[in-house]
């Protein structure tokens, strides 16, 4: 519980919202840190998720859009006002297609709670969770570069058809599971028919 005390210095908790157990996984986070930040990155026009060191876009943006536009819009708006945003509905501070984010959501992956804070405070606070665990940031960065290079070498284009799942993920009560048919790709590989004469 001591770690939560640090987040309360920079963020305000969104009351009445309990997040699914692994909501961060469909968004593309594969790490194990307790806190991740999520906001809309206008420069790539996509949702962005980060743990303060590792970040990415290109995940399940519709989960984020459903959360901020429908499921928890009122609660998030009230929390933004508690953070000092005067009119969050007309000037959405979590970013949009044409506006840069000034605030972000912080997901507590252990407690399944949601928080709101200014992005400048978020980046500084989240990077501290890496230092407290004794990880060498230089080593992590180099391993990520090697991993990215390996992924690019393994890219193979294959014909496929859309899967009937929710874009690669299946919601089981309050936990997301990768679709067993398409393995999170949202598409099923088409095996070419062998024609014999």
Structural description of this entry:
Helices cover 30% and strands 22% of the residues. The chain is of the alpha+beta class and 197 residues long. It is globular, with a radius of gyration of 19 Å. It has 2 domains: 2-152, no CATH class; 160-189, no CATH class. It has helices at residues 2-8, 61-71, 73-82, 119-132, 137-153; strands at 12-13, 35-41, 46-50, 55-57, 103-108, 113-118, 160-162, 169-172, 175-178, 187-189. The relative contact order is 0.17. The strands form 3 sheets. It has a 6-stranded antiparallel β-sheet with strand order 1-6-5-2-3-4, with helices on both faces. Strands 7-10 form a two-stranded antiparallel sheet. Strands 8-9 form a two-stranded antiparallel ribbon.
Terminal residue distance? 69 Å
Envelope shape = globular
Compute the number of strand runs: 10
Average of pLDDT = 80
Largest sheet: 6 strands, antiparallel
**Would you tell me the structural class of the helices and strands?**
alpha+beta
> What pattern of helices and strands is seen along the backbone?
HEEEEHHEEHHEEEE
- How much of the polypeptide forms β-strand, as a percent range? 15-25%
Helix count equals: 5
Q: How many structural domains does the protein architecture include?
A: 2
Helix content: 25-40%
Q: What spatial order of strands do you see in the largest sheet?
A: 1-6-5-2-3-4
Cα Rg: 19 Å
Spans where pLDDT lies below 50 across 5 or more residues: none
């Amino acid at each position: 519980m001591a770690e939560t005390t640090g987040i309360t210095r920079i963020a305000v908790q969104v009351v009445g919202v309990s997040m699914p157990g692994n909501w961060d996984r469909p968004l593309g986070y594969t790490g194990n840190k307790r806190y991740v930040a999520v906001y809309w990155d206008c420069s790539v026009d996509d949702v962005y998720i980060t743990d303060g060191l590792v970040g990415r876009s290109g995940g399940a943006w519709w989960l984020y859009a459903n959360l901020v536009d429908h499921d928890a819009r009122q609660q998030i708006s009230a929390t933004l006002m508690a953070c000092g945003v005067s009119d969050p509905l007309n000037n959405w501070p979590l970013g949009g297609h044409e506006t840069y984010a000034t605030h972000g959501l912080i997901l507590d992956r252990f407690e399944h709670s949601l928080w709101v804070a200014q992005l400048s405070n978020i980046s500084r606070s989240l990077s501290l969770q890496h230092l407290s665990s004794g990880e060498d940031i230089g080593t992590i960065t180099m391993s990520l570069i090697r991993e990215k290079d390996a992924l690019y070498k393994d890219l193979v284009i294959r014909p496929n058809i859309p899967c009937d799942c929710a874009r690669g993920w299946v919601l089981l009560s309050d936990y997301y599971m990768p679709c067993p048919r398409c393995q999170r790709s949202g598409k099923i590989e088409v095996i070419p028919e062998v024609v014999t004469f």
